[in-house]
Amino acid sequence: MQLETAHFGVIEFNEEDILYFPEGIPGFEANKKYALIVDQETSTNFFFLQSTEDSQLCFIVTDPFMLYAGYGVDVDDEDVELLGITDPKTVMTLAIVVIPEDIKEARVNLKAPILINVEKKLGKQIILKDDSLPIRYYLQQNS
Amino acid sequence: MIGHDIELTILDVQGDQVRVGIKAPRNVAVHRKEIYEEIRKENLSAVAVKDTNLQLLNEKFKKKDDSTTS
Predict the structure, then answer these.
(1) CA gap A56, A21 in Å, rounded
(2) Contact present, A32 and A42 (Cβ < 8 Å)
(3) Mutate to test the interface with B, among A68, A96, A132 (most CBs of B within 10 A)
(4) Does A100 touch chain B (CB under 8 A)?
(5) Distance CA A65, CA A139 (A)
(6) What pTM value is reported for the model?
(7) Which of A37, A136, B7, B48 is positioned for an S-S bond with B23, CB 3.0–4.6 A?
(8) Where do the domains of chain B lie?
(9) In total, how many domains does chain A have?
(10) pLDDT tens digits, residue range A7-19?
(11) Which residues of B touch A (CB under 8 A)?
């Protein structure tokens, strides 16, 4: 299918790979379908979670385990059920990146990662109980 | 009590602040509303990204593992 994106124009995307978020994402509850896009031209650790229903809606995400030593995800039974998780190996964890006008303020939400059941193509932004995890983890720590 | 398995306890009262304890089974998600609101706000900021800023970030964090110098 042709997919109109916020950052890459119109791209070709396999419809079977569309991820379904039954509850949407807080702030965007009405948007439930997303495509996870990897930009092959840049070799960074950022990926794109693009809404397939609204071309302007796109989250930039990254792997929190690479950013934060000792990062752990403890999933509630409720979320395990919603995402149909039977094998932890099929779960992908992504953290939402915020890139404001002032790039020095670029940050990652470690408290509420997005979990994706890769096999069942289900996703949800969960809230971790660990209160030591920041909602705003600044990428530029020492400046 | 809320239902038969969620228990609310007032832990402490200091001036106009009240600390509330919530005991709930594992399958019930308990989150403070302000945390949820903050996450919602962060999400709203997250989707407003300019392409130029995206390029800057890409340059800055290109192959993060190789560039350990700051």
Answers:
(1) 17
(2) no
(3) A96
(4) yes
(5) 14
(6) 0.83
(7) B7
(8) 7-60
(9) 1
(10) 889 999 999 999 9
(11) 26-29, 31, 35-36, 38-47, 49-51, 53-54, 56-58, 60-64, 70
Joined together, the tokens standing for residue A7 give 């950052």
Quote the CA–CA distance of B48 and B42 in Å, as a whole number: 10
Beta carbons within 8 Å of A4's beta carbon, 6+ residues apart: A10, A55
Q: Between the CA of residue A104 and those of A4, A11, A59, B13, B67, what are the distances in Å?
A: 29, 30, 19, 40, 17
State the complex-level ipTM: 0.92
Domain extent for A10: 2-138
Question: HSE on the CB side for B9, CA within 13 Å?
Answer: 8
With an 8 Å Cβ cutoff, is A25 touching chain B? yes
The mean of the pLDDT values for chain A is 92
For B61-69, the CB contacts below 8 A with 24+ separation are: B61/A44, B61/A45, B61/A46, B61/A139, B62/A42, B62/A43, B62/A44, B63/A43, B63/A44, B64/A44, B64/A45, B64/A66
